[in-house]
Amino acid sequence: MGRKTSEIIDYLEEIAPTDLAMDFDNVGLLIGNRNASIKRVLICLEVTSEVVEEAINEKIDLIVSHHPVIFKALRRINEHEPKGRIIYKLIKNDIGVYSAHTNLDVTHGGLNNQLASIIGLRDIENLVTYKREKLYKVVVFVPINAVDAVRSAMSRAGAGYIGNYGDCSFMVEGIGTFTPYEGTNPYIGTEGRLEKVEEYRLETIVPEGMLKRVLESMKSVHPYEEVAYDVYRLDMAGREYGMGNIGELDRPETLEAFINRVKQKLSVGSIRVSGKISKEIKNVAVFCGSFDRGILGAVKSKADVLLTGDVKYHDAVDMREMGICAIDAGHFNTERIITPVLKKLLSDKFPDVETIVSDVERDPFKFY
User: Fold this and answer.
1) Sheet of strand 354-357, all strands in order from the earlier edge strand to the far edge
2) Looking at residue 132, what DSSP letter applies?
3) Phi and psi angles of residue 280, each rounded to the nearest 5 degrees, phi first
4) CB atoms within 10 A of CB 177
5) 250: closest CA among 241, 258, 260, 242?
6) What φ, ψ does residue 77 adopt, rounded to 5°?
7) Could you tell me the sign of the dihedral formed by the alpha carbons of 8, 11, 16, 19, in that order?
8) First to last CA, the chain
9) Which one, out of 2, 154, 180, 222, has a CA that is 20 to 30 A from the CA of 335?
10) pLDDT at residue 130, as a whole number
C-alpha cells in the first residue's frame, strides 16, 4: 500500500520541526518528490556510497538520514566526483533522501535526550537554552453542531497543549451574522438575506511549528465556505530547546567507573579522555556529535564531566586548562543511537511502510 513522502515528512517534522535547525544547517527533503509513493524506508546516520548500494539492493524508496546528504554548496553533480556520484545514483534509482540534523539533536526526545537516557541520567534538563518555542492563539467561529469536530481536528493536528495537558481550549456561545451574496454556496442561510446563527467562539493555543497544519485541519472539517478565524502571537513562550543536556547519575561514581559505563552503554571498545577529575562524578553534561566550544562555560559551571562525540585538539587543550574533564566517545557512537529510535517511531506510525536500519554503516575510524 505505502504512503506519500509528504505524510512521512509531516510526521518527522512533528518529531523534529525544521525551524529548530541551526542557521548553517540543511535539513528537510533534499532529494525526491513529496508526492512519491513510499513502501520501504532506510534509516541511516550518513548517506555513503555503501548505504546507497544497500538502498538500491533493498529497493528502498526513501532514505531518512541524520547527516544531510547535501550540506555544502555544490557546483556540479556527476559520476566522477564522490558526492556527485552518490547524488547521481540516488536520482537515477528514484530514491529520495530526507535529513533531520541539528533539529533532531535539540528536539525533545532527540539525540541529546537519547544519549542522556542511554547512559542512565535522571532529571535531564537543557544544558544551554537554544530556542524558545513561539506560541499563537487561534480563534475560530463555529456553528454549534460542528464545534466538537473542529476542536478535535485542531487537537489532532497539534493544538491545545499546555505543559502536560492536552485538548486545552475555551468556548463561549454567541450569535454570528452574515449575508451570503451572489455566487456563494452557504452552509447556512439564503442568498441576499442577513442570517443570525448560534455559534461558538473556539480558541486554543498552537506552537509555531504546528500552526500551518492546525489551520489546514481546522478548515478541512469546518462546514463554512468562508471560515472566520483570527491568529494572535502570544508573549508567553512555549517549550525550551537546548544545546546539550545535563542530568544526574543515580549515585556518584569514579571517573573509571563512568568510563566503563559509557563503553558498555554505547558498545564501544575505546574512548578518548581529556583532563582529569579527583572527585566522584554526579552531574554529567552530554553533547552528541561534534562539540560546540560555545557552551564551555555552562559545562564548567554545571557538570562534573562532559560526554561528547567529537572534540578538536585545541578545544581539548582549553578544556584541560579550564579544569573540565571530557570524554570523547566518537561521533558515530554518540549519534548512531538515534537510528533504532527513528525505526520504531516510523514503524509504529506507518505499519504499512517497511522501515529498516542500515546494516552496512560503520564507524569510519578503526583503532589499533
Assistant:
1) 28-31, 96-99, 62-65, 40-44, 354-357
2) E
3) -75, 155
4) 10
5) 258
6) -130, 110
7) positive
8) 48
9) 2
10) 86
Decide: 245 and 307 in contact? Cβ < 8 Å.
no
Cα separation, 192 vs 179, in Å, equals 6
pLDDT band at 138 (very low <50, low <70, confident <90, very high): very high
For the purposes of burial, counting CB atoms within 10 Å of the CB of 283, is it exposed (0-12), middle (13-18) or buried (19 or more)? middle
Q: Which residues pair with 307 in a beta bridge?
A: 286, 327
According to DSSP, the residues that pair with 206 across neighbouring strands are: 136
Exposure b/e, 135-168, CB count within 10 A at least 16 = b = bbbbebbbbeebbeebbebbbebbbbbeeeeeee
Report, as an integer, the average pLDDT of 136-160: 95
- Residue 172, beta-bridge partner list: 201
Q: State the burial class of residue 226 (Cβ atoms within 10 Å of its Cβ: 0-12, 13-18, 19+).
A: exposed
CA 25 – CA 268 distance, rounded (Å)? 28
Q: pTM, whole model, 2 decimals?
A: 0.86
Residue type, 30: L
- CB burial class (10 A; 0-12, 13-18, 19+) of residue 64? buried
Residue 72: count of CB within 10 angstroms of its CB: 8
Instruction: Name the one residue in this structure whose C-alpha cell is 492536552.
Output: 166
Contact 87, 121 (CB under 8 A): no
**285 residue type, one letter:** A
User: Counting every residue, how long is the chain?
Assistant: 368
The DSSP-derived string for 77-130 is --TTSHHHHHHHHHHHTT-EEEE--HHHHHSTTSHHHHHHHHTT-EEEEEEEEE
| Helix H or strand E segment including 148 | helix 147-156
**Per-residue CA distances from 228 to 143, 159, 196, 223 (Å):** 11, 18, 15, 11
Summarised one tens digit per residue, pLDDT across range 200-238 is 999 999 998 889 999 999 999 999 999 999 999 998 878
Mean pLDDT of 306-310: 96
* C-alpha dist (Å) from residue 268 to 117, 229, 342, 364: 17, 55, 21, 14
Return the exposure string of 108-123: e unless at least 16 CB atoms fall within 10 Å of the residue's CB, then b: eebbbbbbbbebebee
